[in-house]
Amino acid sequence: MIVVAIAVAVAFDFTNGFHDSSNALAALVATRAARPGPAVVLVGVCHVAGPLIAGTAVANTVGGIVRVSAGDTIAVVGAGLTGAIAWNLVTWWRGLPSSSSHALVGGLVGAAVLHAGRSAVQWGGFESGRPVGVLGVLATLAISPVLGFVVAFAAARVARRGLRRARRGVGPVLRRGEWATAAALAFSHGANDAQKTMGVMTVLLVADGHLSSFVVPLWVKLLAAASLTFGTLVGGWRIVRTLGRGIYRLRSQDGLVSQGVSAATILGSAAVGGPVSTTHVVASSVMGVGAGQHRRHVRWAVVREIVMSWLLTLPAAAVAGMLALTVWRELA
Which segments within the chain are labelled E, that is strand? Predict the structure, then answer.
């Protein structure tokens, strides 16, 4: 069963690539700063580098959400992952950039509560300035998109004024800058989102006795990063179209600003162990850039549909995790 559970964790990471990994590509491809092939290579390399260099603070936070006995961990975590996968597939099919992070938290909480009640979940909050448990995770998930929108809005206004009289020759410079910010965004995504799956897999290994303590092995880091990148290559293009053109038609300077703001926000959260949603941060930054440049050109109907999917993600994934628990109990 540990092999099956690890495989499901990899499958979740793969579907996460449909959503969050594609965020690092959206502006780069939509503004024609890079072709899809080279963009995927850039994102893949930086995804692998993120979890290897940035530590495991986020993995530690995610790994502490569920509190059940070692014998029940595989069933509960497996059910939570299954619920998250189901919701990721539904929103990917709709082309909606929903949060894989919310889906994972919702699936784990739903399965744990159904299995052993509220005491099976570490609700937490903040300890020494670091997020702990479900409430700490939800706080960082709520704050980060607001921060991304506000900073991107202000940065877009500054860029608009600064480049108002710029010559056309500045275009290639901006597109080269997009490569740097896309690399930073992919690195930050690996440093944050890949760690969520790393944390789940390490919990499973500890519960099954393969590890004596919560220390993320190197092969787990590489597997998480690789599955994210493969998910981007196979299925992320629906989300790329929504983020690159569906909300606001990005130009080179817009891509530069949105990617830079998103990368800074996500890396800052990873440094304190806050598992944010890359999807929420990037989408909010695109909204902020659009509102800061030409508010009327933002497709607010698409924004409303995206926000609605954000609100539904936690409860929907929790219900899916509860339904999946009956199957995992039988398997385990």
Answer: 125-127, 130-132
